[in-house]
Amino acid sequence: MKKLKAFISRKRIFLGFLILAPEFWWIIFKLPEVFRDLLKLPFYLNQKIFTVFTEERLVAVGLMRWANIDDSGWLQIFSKVIYNRLDLIIDEFFNFLSYISPRIYFQAGDGSIFTPPGIEPLPILLFPLFLFGLINSIKKNKTKPFLFLFIFTLVAYSTGIKNFSFLLPIALIFIWFSSQGFLALNKKHKSLFIGLLIVYSIFLGGRMIWLS
């Protein structure tokens, strides 16, 4: 019975944070555009495959690899290690990581029509709780949220499109981490935080409507 109550409590916190997030309401407002973008998923996937290893990029790597290098010596070996196709893979790895940059979710947005103008997609007040929940999940060896985070990020990365049509599932995982961080607070701090979050979210909602 206690486990059931704890489960319901965690769900309520997650849903509460979700409802207080401007991005939640903005995506609902933009649902037709979201569905149209999702229908383009096969095209985006195909486009991403052909843009990663384009002829132009590979030729550029080849030119860098052999530029001003003699036929012998350690410089030739160094050039083979540094300027090869592994460089492209490393570049794409950091591109992959950019899809889970907290700045997109708690500050800047994606710069498209899928994020509310002039405000952050998720309230910045959730960011400390997000970090706290992330650290706690690592300490407690909770693998499921990280597995889902990897899958959702891989899907978004595979499209080559960085907007909330495809980033929304990642935002939901971030909200879940924030809810886990909230659970670690004591009762007094929980009440204070909820009050601040509600007031701040009302401010964000008013600003979103005003700037729309």
Look at the structure and give the mean pLDDT: 83
Number-wise, the strands total 0
Biggest β-sheet strands, sense, barrel: none
Oligomeric form: single chain
- Report the uncertain regions: none
Proportion of residues in helical segments: over 70%
Number of helices, counting only DSSP H or I runs of 4 residues or more: 12
Quickly give the structural class: mainly alpha
Number of domains: 1
Termini separation: 46 Å
In one word, what is the shape?
Answer: globular
Classify the beta-strand content into a percent band: under 5%
Q: How large, in whole angstroms, is the Cα Rg?
A: 22 Å
Q: Give me the strand/helix succession.
A: HHHHHHHHHHHH
